[in-house]
Write a structure and sequence with these properties.
The complex is a heterodimer. Chain A is mostly helical. Chain A is built from ten helices and two strands. In chain A, about 75% of the residues lie in helices and about 5% in strands. The model of chain A has no long low-confidence stretch (mean pLDDT about 80). Classes of the chains: A mainly alpha, B mainly alpha.
Chain lengths: ~270, ~140
Amino acid sequence: MTFFVLVAVAVIVGILGSLLGVGGGILIVPILTLFLDVPVKNAVGTSLVCVVVTSSASQLVYVARGLTNSRLGMTLEVATTLGALVGGVTAILVSGRAIFGVFAAVLVYVLISMERKPAEPLPASPGSALAGSFPDPDTGRTITYGVDHLSAGLALSFVAGNVSGLLGVGGGAIKVPVMALLMRVPLRAAIATSNLMIGVTAATGALLFFGRGLIEPRYAVPTALGIVIGAQLGPRLSSRVSTGVLRRVFEVLLAVLAVQMALKAVGI
Amino acid sequence: MDDRDHARQDGVPGEGQAGRQGDGERRRANVDVVIHHTLAAGVAVGFVLLVAGLALTVAGRGGLATFSLKAPAAWRAALHLRAAGFYSLGLLVLILTPFVRVMGSIVAFAAARDWRFVAVTCAVLAVMIASIAIGAA
């Protein structure tokens, strides 16, 4: 029975993730721990697998559309994978209640950052190795952009990787605002590039968890299968559902989960 | 229809348009093609292995375990048609797909003689390998 519940939950998470440009981890960990009584470290391991799958499935679309900036992604990924490695080791060592507390704080941060508007894209300077371009699906024009504040972006990417390894989330909720607000990368390219990065980051953490036996097939298999199905369904449903309504539903869901995770952190 | 539209229709970025693109664009497209094929293969193989595991469970060849098998044990179990082997291999393939994608990117950047990004991507790969080493320790 739990198998089918997990598949159904993962399908919904996969659809939401692919429509809103977020990884599934931010929902999978609270759902597994709060409603299915999965130990938090096993939930983190399962979630990392889901984030890898979400990233790989979504990148098939993003790369084909030319939205992913591979050079920028790999540059930031140096800091992010280091952060994920440190976070993964920390997650194995710290108590479950500490993880619940940090998770609640990150959920609140994600809620706040979703309301912020992205900065104007930076024009590309000639010869810039990290500059990118993509065809805007709305206007058909090619948008060319540069990258600002690389050092600060690298530092915050380390933090995003750390959060990912510690909590089993992709860290996209941190990476997208960092790229769109601070580094002035256009939002579409920021989401696609973040999506490339979350797969690499989560895989780093997942390898660590797999080696430690913290990825249980009884949870990971149904959720991975559901995520693959959901990530395929999401883009097909995008023309039939309002992204604004979905966004509000997602925000309410995040707020409820944040409160419940905070209560778990203080032992209630 | 421009190059990008053509690529989008094919579902593979940048193939067959090299003549009309600048060097930088062509190199970027080559990297993207490598990434795209790696991802498609990884997701498909991982998904098929997990579904095969489910089929074996239905056939009474073992259930969903509470622990993953390490690669050699998973391989042996799969050869004996045990579901646990297929589940662990499927999960491993899915987890390793971004890892292979990073290695593919190194090859693609090297083919484009983009040595700066060969070095950057090698650094990412080094941290991922450190992760495996720590996980196995």
